[in-house]
Write a structure and sequence with these properties.
There is one protein chain. By secondary structure, the chain is mainly β. The protein has two helices and ten strands; from the N terminus they run αββαββββββββ. The strands form three sheets. Strands 2-1-7-5-6 form a five-stranded mixed sheet, with helices on one face. A three-stranded mixed sheet has the order 4-3-8, with no helix packed on it. The N and C termini lie far apart (about 55 Å).
Length: about 130
């Protein structure tokens, strides 16, 4: 019913050496294997949490690691509420533990145009006035 998996007997040097990306976690530089998720990278260096609870301020760590529970949200490249388990590491990435609930950018309507009953709105994003 199942086919046996044969082991490889020879490896080239390129296959046996993993490639690494350099990224920043909480403003410290790390070398992380290519293909890791952000959460896996954080766990691999000993960080067991991705964020701090907006209610109690206690550390919160990943739970399901498949994008369902949102316990792994963190700040990636300055954007809050990114799911660490669903984001693959990239060279130069800046990752931070998320403080509280993050923030949602406010938008300002600068121009509104209606063409054939279809609205087109141009938005400008502003920095939040007070982050949570």
């Amino acid at each position: 019913m199942f086919k046996a998996i044969q082991k490889r007997t020879s490896h080239s040097d390129a296959e046996s050496k993993p490639k690494y990306v350099t990224l920043s976690i909480d403003q410290q530089s790390y070398q992380i294997p290519e293909g890791y998720s952000v959460t896996a990278a954080m766990l691999s260096i000993g960080h067991n949490s991705n964020r701090y609870s907006p209610i109690s301020g206690k550390k919160r760590g990943p739970y399901c690691l498949m994008g369902v529970c949102f316990e792994c949200v963190c700040q990636i490249d300055g954007i809050a509420n990114r799911q660490g388990c669903m984001t693959i590491v990239a060279s130069g990435m800046q990752i931070e533990h998320q403080q509280g609930g993050g923030y949602i950018q406010e938008a300002t309507i600068i121009q509104e145009t209606t063409i054939d009953e279809t609205a087109s709105i141009n938005l400008t994003l502003e920095e939040p006035k007070n982050a949570l």
